[in-house]
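Chapter review: from sequence to fold.
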Amino acid sequence: MATYGLLRRASLLSCSNSISPSPTASRRSLAAPFRRYSVSSRAQLISSGSRNYRSALFPLRCSASDSVKRPKMASEERQEPCNRIARIASAIRVIPNFPKPGIMFQDITTLLLDTRAFRDTIDLFVERYRDKEISVVAGVEARGFIFGPPIALAIGAKFVPMRKPNKLPGEVISEEYSLEYGTDTIEMHVGAVQAGERALVIDDLIATGGTLCAAINLLERVGVHVVECACVIELPELKGRERLGDKPLFVLVNAA
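The token string follows.
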């Protein structure tokens, strides 16, 4: 009888242990499902219930800062730069007879309103110049001030404004250049750049090339090496590229 009692007690203890885990183990088992489902897993769970609801909560984005990206097909990789340039070109508005009859004005203000096209513009420049050891981004007044600073920040360079006369306080160095209707001058602060630095000159558009030539001359006078000039738009019929001589020019949109 004593033996039977001991065996029965052992059996009850065994059954009790199998259905009543310790408090710690219980907490682990309850918490496990919540730890196991990451944000992406929860997104998958939601998507099984409603695709529209998932899209509203987790919109798909394509950005260089995204930590997780959808793998692209080879054809997509080849087409992407062309797609971005086409988007940029379509965002630029052309206004005829402004500021005078016969002029087809390339208006970038509509590009700035299109956040995707504006971002594409900056990204394409950054991708080109990120690894070229550029320490100076020189922006030509006035629209070079729009594109220059974000590029400079992204590639780790300083931004140097190149302005019309009497706009910069303090001591300046100047360069005069000719236009089809007269002359103009561009100025830069003394001490803004140092001899031996590598510079990118940027503006929104190249027409006759006079302003870019003046910016190059100004920088080279103080010993800076101008790596390249960059513009969003080129008007090839005005042959500004030829005026730059052997200085490289990179443009996104040809407005021929």
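Two observations follow directly from the output. Residues 2-19 form the longest helix (18 residues). Residues 1-79 have pLDDT under 50 and may be disordered.
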